[in-house]
Write a structure and sequence with these properties.
By secondary structure, this protein is mostly helical. The protein has one domain. It contains 14 helices and no strands. Helix 10 packs across helix 11 and helix 12 runs antiparallel to helix 14.
Length: 282
């Protein structure tokens, strides 16, 4: 848990109890998410070696600048890359035990950018996006806090995370709405046929056109209406609960475990922002 000194510092800076809870929940969830991602990268070491098919020697051709490529050649040597991942795992442990700090968030943010470069921008799509969003939000909170306003820093960080997450849900729903395969329900069957346990059996409920249609429109409506979660914390809790179920189903059917945890990290910020927004404007 956060040290007594850290808690006292936040209290003296005017950070109230609900914000302290949101901070701690975000740090713990994010530390767990980072640890899982890092362990996955470490396990893939034999696939990123110099003679493997994810070798940096192949991917380095994407870097046009000679000087930048020379620096990255050093950083992405297999042993150096493994050392970075071990340090990243240690940083995740520090985040869980001691909480975030400006040096820690700078290290994790820069390290995450390097990992994104290593994987040509993304390794796992949405989870990489949300990891970067969380890192940016936490970095914003500590940069602003270091400038003298800790309370404002956490407000800015939480709102950045919440707006990014809510907007991504809304845009996902809007894109689905524009796609005929989602409007007619066939997308559910198409995606699940390609899942880990696919194709769907002939007797599977989602082979039923009307159930697939209901499921498709349920996801479309839920995602498009997600901005309304800001109107009330109880409404935000419902939207986040449905989101957790959705992400768990994605993990169950597609094996995207990091997808599940990366998105859950944003829920404390959404809940906190909903409470702040509803108290001030509703």
């Amino acid at each position: 848990m956060l040290s007594a000194a850290s808690i006292q510092t936040l209290i003296e800076a005017g950070v109230q109890a609900p914000t302290l809870v949101a901070i701690r929940a975000t740090e713990l969830l994010f530390a767990w998410s980072l640890a899982l991602q890092t362990l996955e990268y470490l396990r893939m070491g034999k696939y990123t070696a110099d003679d493997a098919f994810w070798s940096w020697q192949l991917q380095r051709a994407d870097i046009p600048n000679v000087t930048a490529r020379a620096w990255l050649d050093v950083l992405f040597k297999p042993r150096m890359h493994q050392l970075h991942l071990v340090l990243r795992l240690c940083a995740a442990a520090v985040l869980a035990v001691q909480g975030a700090s400006l040096p820690l968030m700078v290290f994790l943010f820069v390290g995450n950018l390097l990992i994104l470069i290593r994987w040509r921008g993304a390794f796992n799509g949405g989870s990489d996006f949300m990891t970067l969003v969380l890192l940016t939000g936490l970095l914003i909170s500590h940069v602003v806090g270091a400038l003298g306003n800790v309370q404002l820093g956490w407000q800015a960080g939480f709102w950045y995370i919440a707006i990014q997450a809510i907007t991504s849900y809304f845009m996902s729903g809007a894109v689905k709405l524009l796609r005929p395969e989602w409007r007619n329900g066939s997308a559910m069957t198409i995606f699940l046929n390609g899942a880990i346990y696919g194709p769907l059996s002939p007797a599977h409920p989602l082979r039923n056109k009307w159930l697939a249609l209901l499921g498709s429109w349920g996801f479309i409506v839920w995602e498009i209406l997600f901005p309304f979660s800001l109107l009330d914390p109880r409404l935000a809790a419902v939207f986040c609960a449905v989101a957790a179920l959705f992400h768990f189903l994605v993990f169950w059917f597609f094996g995207l475990n990091r997808f599940f945890w990366a998105w859950l990290c944003a829920f404390p910020a959404i809940m906190w922002c909903s409470a702040q927004f509803s108290a001030r404007f509703v």
